[in-house]
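Marked as duplicate of an earlier ticket. Keeping the data here for the record.
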Amino acid sequence: MQRMQAIVYIVECADNSFYVGITHRSLEQRIGEHNSGQIEGYTKSRLPVKLVHAEEFAMITQAIARERQLKGWSRAKKKALIAGDFKKLSVLSKPIK
């Protein structure tokens, strides 16, 4: 079984929204593709984008699972992750009673 490295990343768009994506290429290349309008979809109408978070994975399946997880997170949880505020992230991850 061949292993393929992948990177899950979060960019902040010009409208202050976040976009979560995945790439096999370098982050510099991928962010450049977003900012040049080569990537169709969400970010194309919200340029420029700025890289705010990235995580590397040895296996593509792990990266896909993480991308799906992050896409399901609230804006507040994404902001806590980006800031490295793991205490706040923990609080935001607890179910509301």
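See parent ticket for discussion. Residues 60-71 form the longest helix (12 residues).
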